[in-house]
Amino acid sequence: xxxxxxxxxxxxxxxxxxxxxxxxxxxxxxxxxxxxxxxxxxxxxxxxxxxxxxxxxxxxxxxxxxxxxxxxxxxxxxxxxxxxxxxxxxxxxxxxxxxxxxxxxxxxxxxxxxxxxxxxxxxxxxxxxxxxxxxxxxxxxxxxxxxxxxxxxxxxxxxxxxxxxxxxxxxxxxxx
Length: 176
Prior knowledge:
Largest sheet: none
Number of domains: 1
Helix content: over 70%
Distance between the termini: 67 Å
Oligomer: single chain
Low-confidence stretches: none
Radius of gyration: 20 Å
Number of strands: 0
Structural class: mainly alpha
């Protein structure tokens, strides 16, 4: 029974990582956004959403600042890990179970904030911040191939055929 639960958790964890990997592939191929830039954007988005949801009272401002520093430093530490230290396809049942429990906790927090009887804007922002943190947590365990996307090149070729032009002007360089 326990082995069956762990195998389900590992499969679910692999499915979640596959969804995040597909998101990374889509960002790289269509918008040329690398994994590094996506992670940096998620750090900025999470901290910005956390600042919006802060309780700006004298009692809570110190607690909020300490939490921003703590969570921000964890996110930067995860982001700066070298490619060799990232997961890269290794599956461990205990780590998968911990990630699924962490994910369930964050989704529960987000659900409580977003699906409240009278949701507030700060609650919705806090729920979105928790979902961003889950995606970031999975993203920092993926090794990106770093190959440039091909779909954008194919789309540009189709656009050239559609407009019946052989060239599309590039933006002019600014003098330094």
